[in-house]
Amino acid sequence: MAAVTGGPATATDEVRAAGGVVWRATDDGVQVCLVHRPRYGDWTVPKGKLEPGEHPLVAAVREVAEESDVRAVPQVRLPTARYLVDGRPKVVDYWSMRAVATGGFEAGTEVDEVGWFDVDDAARRVSYPHDAEVLAAFAALPSATGTVLVLRHARAGRRATWSGPDSARPLDPAGWARAVALAPLVAAVRPERLLSASARRCVQTLDPAAARLDLPIEVTGDLDEPAPGQVPEECVLAAAARLAELGAGGVSAAVCSQGKVIPGALERLAGAPGDFGTPKGGGWLLAFAAGRLLAADPV
């Protein structure tokens, strides 16, 4: 029997996997995607093992596409499933995902059928209790309308050792390496827009993703830290308003901002205090419903 929890996995002997509850809207409501695996004779939520060094969110999007031939935008983190496979603990991270495109699925040895079902039917059809529990968690969510990936810029050396304007301080080698590593994560949310604070280190953090996606970076002062003499709350409100605007637009976006702005903006959107401290090169996956913040999950 699987246990479903939300905590992170740390054991080195764990089998790590990721997947998603992929949904689409129909005239009759919402349908979710299941796959049939002939090897096991089961119906399950699409998922698969992480590749070495792969971020779970990137793996989830990739595995959904490989198993179901559905391209999807991740939205809300769902409960993590833990169970044993051949005596080894397996940990599967899940996200809800909005289907945005499908290809020409061809049956194979791993998956021979893809089906779309209403949530109740899917919960009855799946072969494992942990899948039913993840579907139940999805069913309890409001329908997400927008996804925004918020990143804090990567490392840019020490301010004290930079002789030029702070806004011109560039990424250091470790920061560039992190920016390159972030590009697959940015691509996984299938952004239609990339936005950055005006500081060079913020723009540079998105540069590898922009090249990969062939998207321009829109530079906006709404995401900037306070300038000398500026009231910090003004910057927090401006950043929160910009994030809310993106979330209400029904599209996916990725933005890069700064450490003195992100925590306050997320608290403002959440409507309550929270631990939104963000390390350099870290970030949050935000999901919005009807213009309101539905979930903020660290990535």
From TrEMBL:
<protein>
    <submittedName>
        <fullName>NUDIX hydrolase</fullName>
    </submittedName>
</protein>
<dbReference type="InterPro" id="IPR051325">
    <property type="entry name" value="Nudix_hydrolase_domain"/>
</dbReference>
<keyword id="KW-0378">Hydrolase</keyword>
<dbReference type="Pfam" id="PF00293">
    <property type="entry name" value="NUDIX"/>
</dbReference>
<dbReference type="InterPro" id="IPR029033">
    <property type="entry name" value="His_PPase_superfam"/>
</dbReference>
<dbReference type="InterPro" id="IPR020084">
    <property type="entry name" value="NUDIX_hydrolase_CS"/>
</dbReference>
<dbReference type="InterPro" id="IPR013078">
    <property type="entry name" value="His_Pase_superF_clade-1"/>
</dbReference>
<dbReference type="GO" id="GO:0006754">
    <property type="term" value="P:ATP biosynthetic process"/>
</dbReference>
<dbReference type="Pfam" id="PF00300">
    <property type="entry name" value="His_Phos_1"/>
</dbReference>
<feature type="domain" description="Nudix hydrolase">
    <location>
        <begin position="13"/>
        <end position="139"/>
    </location>
</feature>
<dbReference type="GO" id="GO:0004081">
    <property type="term" value="F:bis(5'-nucleosyl)-tetraphosphatase (asymmetrical) activity"/>
</dbReference>
<dbReference type="InterPro" id="IPR015797">
    <property type="entry name" value="NUDIX_hydrolase-like_dom_sf"/>
</dbReference>
<dbReference type="InterPro" id="IPR000086">
    <property type="entry name" value="NUDIX_hydrolase_dom"/>
</dbReference>
<dbReference type="GO" id="GO:0006167">
    <property type="term" value="P:AMP biosynthetic process"/>
</dbReference>
